[in-house]
Amino acid sequence: MDISINASFLPQDDSEAALAFYRDLLGFEVRKDVGYAGMRWLTVGPPGQPGTSIVLHPPGVDPGITDDERQVISEMMAKGTYAGILLATPDLTATFDALQAGDAEIVQEPTDQPYGVRDCAVRDPAGNLIRIQEAQ
Question: In terms of pTM, does the model score above 0.85?
């Protein structure tokens, strides 16, 4: 089998703030910007890696989700416990410094973890946990 990860999905509740974080702060390319019925889906990804993307989507848009479930999703996003992603960089210190200078919400400064990686954690504007580890 030859399988790769094409896209991951993260909710966003403010598309302009999401663009400022992923495009302007992380340096990702905007691959798609699609509007429909007053909502907006953004597909972003790292330059030079066209086969890997993150789709930033409106939360709770699945027609099978109830209003109560949408409320839970909103509450979990506000607490930063709904979604997250793990990224990697060859220079964690420089990446962290850029995120801190860009006023990203810092969750954890660069730390040597007991499980063998050095990483840090921030939240994107929607509250998603973004862990970034130093590429080995």
Answer: yes
